[in-house]
Amino acid sequence: MTGPQRREQLVQVGRKLFAEKGFEATSVEEIASQAKVSKPVVYEHFGGKEGLYAVVVDREIQALLGGISEALDEGQGARVLLERATLALLDYIESDTDGFRILVRDSPAGQSTGSFASVLGDVASQVEHLLAAEFKARGLDPKSAPIHAQMLVGMVALTGQWWLDRRKFKKDQVAAHLVNLAWNGLAGLDPNPRLVTQRRG
């Protein structure tokens, strides 16, 4: 194999093992063994397991964010954008199951970027400005758009994790239920929400 071919082979082997076992439970020895190379070859290409993991995670993040960014092309109505963004995340979960499993697992200690939370934060920031414009048009406070963006993205992501393990519903059904809750919830938003109960203390 050429250098680039060997590197790609190691990325694919690492991706499969990280998805199955997680970062901590995967060893350089195992990666080398499955790729039928010696351990020094892995170190030569990536400097160690952390380097390989970083490459794998970066690819997954680009794939996920690329799909969602494409779905959020402006010029569509808010309902259509919500549907397309929801389907983009579910499409990624369905077609890149190993990649999604890697992203939702805990990142190695000390790694602040590349965690699923940071990816969702990036997605929420893309959704935020769309919500702000919609809120303004409906007479709601656009300053509350960031919290709603986090809630929407979190709802879709957690439901996606649940769906990945159960698959009791078709993807379009999951998306339809998510959009139904989100859209009808947004449509009925109280402009000045208050808790019904008061906490004692």
UniProtKB/TrEMBL annotation:
Identify the Pfam families for this entry. Answer: TetR_C_32, TetR_N
Q: Which keywords are on file for this protein?
A: DNA-binding, Transcription, Transcription regulation
Q: Which residues bind DNA?
A: 27-46
Q: Which residues form the HTH tetR-type domain?
A: 4-64
| UniProt GO MF annotations | DNA-binding transcription factor activity; transcription cis-regulatory region binding
One GO BP: negative regulation of DNA-templated transcription
Among its keywords, does the record have DNA-binding?
yes
State whether keyword Transcription applies.
Answer: yes
- Write down what this protein is called: TetR family transcriptional regulator
